[in-house]
Amino acid sequence: MWRRPVRALALVVFLLATTIAAVPDDTVAEQTCKAAKAHREVGSLDRAKTLYESVKVSDGDQQCAVEGLKLVAKARQDAAKRVTAGQLLIRSGNLTGARKKFTEALGFDAANAAAEAGIARVTDLSSRPLPTAVSNGDRFYRDWVLPLGRLVGLAVIGLLVLFVLASLSSRWLVKVDAVAWPVWIRRITGSLGALLLLAAAVMAPLFAMFSPFTPTWTQCRIGALVLALVGLGAAGLVFAGARRNTWERWRVLLLALGIVTVTGILLALLVSKPSKPIYDVRLMFVCIALAAIGVLLTAAAFGQNLRLQVEVQEADGTVNAASSDYLLARMKGLGTETPQSLHKSTSTPGSTPLSQIPVEELSVLPAGKVVGALTRVLFALRPDRTWRARVTFVDDDRLAAALFRNGRHAASAVFSRPDLWLPTDNQKDPAKAQMLTCAAAFILTQLSEVHEELQDGLYGARQWKSVALQVIASSKSLLADDENRVATRARLLAKAVDTDPGNELARFEYLWVAHEHTPYEEMDFHAFARAIDHQYDLSRVKEVFDDREGWMPLKIRILYSSATQWLNAWIGGGTDADRAAMLTSARDSAKELDRLCDTGQVSWKSKELRRLQAAMHPHARVLVACLDAVQDTTTAGGRAGNATAQHSHEDGPASPRLAYDHACLHMFTAQRRNLKADARRQEWEYAIEDLRHALVTEKDKKDAQGDPCFTELRSDRRFQELVGTQPTATAATPPDGSA
């Protein structure tokens, strides 16, 4: 009976032993990882990486393979660091230390070609004689100049390619009618975009040539964070620059920024398996995304530039260099000609420029078919050349103008002399100049619709025909100098106001020209001054602040005209109350004029405006002095009887026009109460002296003959000789019976 239990026990022992023998010591994954570890420890990183990547989920725990791949990557990075250190030691001359570093690198990565090349280099240098100046120079050229030269060359080429991409992208990102952002936002956007493009152009060859680092999860997270911040900042600039009701015109730019940012972040963070082919270069996706954002920002900033290139061509398509240069000058100098004035006592010694375009923003297409064609190609590739205007003469009376923004058609117009109510001119050149002036007005008004900083210089005008007619009517060179000139000017200015009632400059020019043909003896100065002030009160000119520099030339002209007209009206007489009101109005205008022309009180940025300020300040001071003299004339007491005459300009007049104003001042001073007879007579002498310097042309003499300021001088023989009238038999004497 005891044999059965023994047999059963033996069978159990046999089965247990068989089962234990069938169970392996390790899983397949662990065995593979152990084999890969052995290869990794001896520096066979490629074989170790292959074994780690061969581990499958079905083989067991895959975590050892993941950790192993990380160790392989770390070993490559450690080897690269030691290779870099060895190269630096070679340059410093420490060959022993360099060999040690290269050997350590081979211990980490036995197949590291750079380490093997480094050891070969050390061996070669050790077999050579001591270094000389020539060998050091060769080594410097080979180790520094060549690599840096290649790096800089590739970076420059890459930067040019990125800028060309930005130029080609601007036509899709910036709509032709999109209002340009404020200048400071455009500058920030362009600077950020250029910085990103520069970084991308430098990093691409740097990473390819030197492999400065292997991307880790920490670096990828930092890169994704930087990309997110740059993307949000770029979107914030778009929303800050665009108006609330026009931001949808930038939806393509916003959509592109969003897609690029999100894609770059996802590619940098979601590729987690080392077996993926893009695992080792995932940080490059962040760099590519940042470069794409740089292209978008640069395209958006440069696509809103004010850079303008003009071209004038004949009907056969040939470029007319002279007409192109004239149009270019007109684009900058529109309205800067001295305005056709009234009489000297009512005119304004200043111009009213319309164009606020800086000189550096303008260029002209060179003449010549080959040069012109090359320039057009360059224009298409340059991201900073935004606008291009092409003007074509169909014939002597018709002209076509087309305006392009970023290579896309923005506006065009066809106009003729009859459509613009221009007078018939038998001379071809002045007629062509008129048409080119119209083209300049068309281009300028179209630019002002998207570049709002130009609108101040147009004084409220929105219609280019109104601007063109006003400029032609106010110019001395664009209208024939005949007996119909005044009537033609009045007709053109009336058409300008009818076409665009918001053109403040045209309205005031029309008001001034309406009184130009009126003789002095028939002019109602009181009504004229009242009309100027009424128009000024209704206009936008009175409400603008000093920082709106584009409006200031017109404001200066209006204030000067108002002050002089009220002063002339005071000379014309009236009740005491009326004359007191006239002086009050004149003083208000003169004080405001003096404030605007005083550099100590108002400082402007525009160079042209500062020049006008300097030129007008002496005239403003003379006006204030005239009113002070008149105040002494109308108030009791006044200056003491022993007062003496004072010359108003000890160093001589700066100009004939200023001398004319000083002559008026002396005549007002001569009317002061209680002024000594000798002093009064001396003021007359000073006035005659100034008039000798001021009265040169026949028109000057005619103006002085009718000027109310010189009413008391009209019977003076010296004055009569100056203005060319028939001398009287009896010489005039100053008031109060002085001889």
From TrEMBL:
Bias class Low complexity marks the residues at: 727-739
- Domain of life, per UniProt, equals Bacteria
- Looking at the record, which segments are called Disordered? 699-739
Name the keywords, alphabetized.
Answer: Membrane, Signal, Transmembrane, Transmembrane helix
Q: Where is the signal peptide?
A: 1-24
Transmembrane annotation, as ranges: 144-168, 188-210, 222-240, 252-271, 283-303
Q: What is the name of the protein in this document? A: Uncharacterized protein
Organism equals Streptomyces lacrimifluminis
Q: What is the lineage of its organism?
A: Bacteria, Bacillati, Actinomycetota, Actinomycetes, Kitasatosporales
